[in-house]
Write a structure and sequence with these properties.
Largest sheet: 5 strands, parallel
Strand order of the largest sheet: 1-5-4-2-3
Number of strands: 5
Radius of gyration: 19 Å
Mean pLDDT: 85
CATH topology: Oxidized Rhodanese, domain 1
Strand content: 5-15%
Number of domains: 1
CATH superfamily: Rhodanese-like domain
Shape: globular
CATH architecture: 3-Layer(aba) Sandwich
CATH class: Alpha Beta
Low-confidence stretches: 5-12, 18-28
Length: about 130
């Protein structure tokens, strides 16, 4: 009788320590999802490549200037946002400084969306070359 050793044909990849640290501290997860926050330069690239830009500032802030491609849903109305978003598309959430967008992105991730907060808010967006009208 001959003994045969079998091994799985495609071993499941184990995340590296660096991948696990990135995920733990808000960097991009190993599975390709956004993570909890993005820098403005990355946000611009994501939006150019089809990500949705969601502005969660108040109406008066929105009227004083916003990114032309953004969808506006104030943080207080975030429960209405899923009706205006595509489930399979990444979402970059912005506000004035990055505080409200963190709350909104976390809420959206809890609903199954791939959402990240824009670090530094509108100021960072503008400094990175993002348009405002």
């Amino acid at each position: 009788m001959e003994l045969t050793l079998t091994t799985p044909s495609t071993p499941s990849p184990t995340p590296s320590v660096l991948d696990r640290l990135r995920q733990l501290f808000g960097g991009q997860p190993a599975d390709g999802r956004l993570g909890s926050k993005v820098k403005a330069e990355q946000a611009l690239e994501l939006v150019r490549n089809g990500a949705t830009l969601l502005d969660v500032r108040e109406s008066s802030e929105w009227k004083s200037g916003h990114a032309p491609s953004a969808i506006h849903v104030a943080l207080g109305n975030i429960d209405q946002a899923p009706r205006r978003l595509h489930q399979g598309r990444p979402i970059v959430v912005m506000c004035a400084s990055g505080m409200r967008s963190r709350t909104a992105a976390k809420h959206l991730r809890g609903l199954g969306f791939d959402a990240a907060s824009l670090t530094g808010g509108m100021g960072a967006w503008q400094r990175a070359g993002g348009a405002i009208r």
